[in-house]
Amino acid sequence: MNAEIDISKVILETDRLRIRPWSMEDLEDFYEYASVDGVGQMAGWNPHKSRSESQEIMNRFISHKRTFALELKKNKKVIGSIGIEEISFDLGEPYTSLKGREIGYVLSKEYWGMGLMPEAAGKVMEYCFDVSGCQFLQCSHSFENAQSKRVIEKCGFEFIQDYERTNKNGENHKSKMYVKMSPQ
Ligand SMILES: CC(C)(COP(=O)(O)OP(=O)(O)OC[C@H]1O[C@@H](n2cnc3c(N)ncnc32)[C@H](O)[C@@H]1OP(=O)(O)O)[C@@H](O)C(=O)NCCC(=O)NCCS
């Protein structure tokens, strides 16, 4: 079952990042990275074609209260997002009876390979377990997404099973599902 999540007043910090709710001022930064070819496709969505498309999605981030913006401290730019999503694939017992969520993330192409997403995801996972009462977290990547696989490994998830995921474009992708149990 889904744990209750409301991140609208939550601010987390790591060495390099301020992990905070989205705000209306973030539109330009969001559009800048979400419109780049090869970023969203890996997470199942197409590059944004207009600021109004980014605005619509950002409005959803704000109203759903479960997606963080990742702000790089050194330049105060928003360079990615992490969502504490509702569970999209039921793994059966024991997970069905436990409180959990699914983590999803995207980072601006300019900042890939610096360990920023493992840094952010580690902090968000800590928040999910210690504050939001998640008993487990799920995370998945498509077979081809070796970069996301590395993030999942670095965050200590355990592989559970292969499954078929239908993305936002209605396409099916063979994917791998992982779980991490709360340390408590
Ligand atoms: C997946 C993603 C968030 C990784 O974030 P990150 O902060 O770059 O993560 P890391 O720095 O730990 O790098 C992870 C792996 O990416 C690969 N990588 C690093 N730099 C890269 C680059 N410039 N281009 C391609 N791959 C690169 C490396 O294999 C690295 O693993 P290693 O550290 O063992 O060498 C980022 O690549 C991304 O946003 N991808 C597009 C969206 C996406 O795939 N979301 C997840 C959907 S399941």
Describe this structure in words.
This protein is of the alpha+beta class and 184 residues long. The protein has one domain (12-181): Aminopeptidase (3-Layer(aba) Sandwich), CATH 3.40.630.30. It has helices at residues 27-34, 51-64, 116-130, 146-154, and strands at residues 12-13, 17-21, 67-72, 77-85, 100-107, 136-142, 158-166, 172-181. It has an 8-stranded mixed sheet, sandwiched between helices. A hairpin with a 5-residue loop joins strand 7 and strand 8. The mean pLDDT is 96. The structure holds coenzyme A. Coenzyme A binds at residues 39, 42-43, 105-107, 112-118, 141, 145, 147-148, 150-151, 154. The site of coenzyme A has 20 residues, from strand 5, helix 3 and helix 4.
Question: TL;DR of this structure?
Answer:
This protein has 4 helices and 8 strands; from the N terminus they run ββααβββαβαββ. It is α+β, with helices and mostly antiparallel strands.
Number of domains: 1
Average pLDDT, to the nearest integer?
96
Might you state the CATH topology name?
Aminopeptidase
Spatially, the strands of the biggest sheet line up as 1-2-3-4-5-6-8-7
CATH architecture call: 3-Layer(aba) Sandwich
**How large is the radius of gyration?**
16 Å
Which ions and ligands are bound to the chains? coenzyme A
First-to-last CA distance:
18 Å
Number of helices: 4
